[in-house]
Amino acid sequence: MKPLVLTLKQEPDQRLDLGQLTPNQIEGKSVNEIAEIELQTTREKLTVGDIFKIRAGSAQSIRFEGGSLRLDNVGHEMKSGEILVEGDCGKNTGRNMSGGTVTVVGDCGPFAGSCMSGGKLEIGNNAGDFLGGPLDGEMEGMSGGLLIVRGSVGKRAGDRLRRGTIVVERSAGDYPGSRMIAGTLIVLGNCGQMPGYLMRRGTIALARPPELAPTFTDCGTHKLAFAGVFAGLLRPESPGAARLFARPLYRFAGDMAALGKGEIFFPA
Hints:
With 268 residues, this protein is mainly β.
């Protein structure tokens, strides 16, 4: 399938909202119609044609040549198809997406995968704070899908995670899995302080755990049947995460300061 290619002309001098440039929103539009789409900005009125050179192709496969941390809302409310960004993205990448695939080769800003409910978001380098988390005033974060970060993430990854799987292949900042409701968060590198802070349910797996809060209860070493099955599902996406679940695991239950039905695993 020949992709629709949007080549960034130059680094933008203001933040740009690219939330309208998803396969489900531009399907059936001509190159001229796409070029005339007005973008939300922080200052001057701009259109897609002012920012990108456009090369015709299928709207179900969109490729951004070049990126910038000022390009916000890439893949916002995406339902199908695929987006590839050959560079960086700003905040809210993949927010509220429910299907399809978004792949970012570079870095992403805060709130990547915020409240996504399906599909797959893969970030090739690092991501900012609140990975998969909700915005202010929202009660639930990510509720489905697969979110993989090949680099490191900021603080509070998986905040209010409701469902779905998050894999961080390098380090995570403080409070990973804060206020988790359910779902799975995996961190393969170093981890900041207070993992699982006020988590109610859900699973956190840490390859290199820090000292846990005293509100987590030691449950001993386990060799769990589900872990082997889960490792098989993870292997094509993240071999490192699969290897973690294939080993005997030490389990802590908590956070007893909240509902206390969550669990944190790390290698025995």
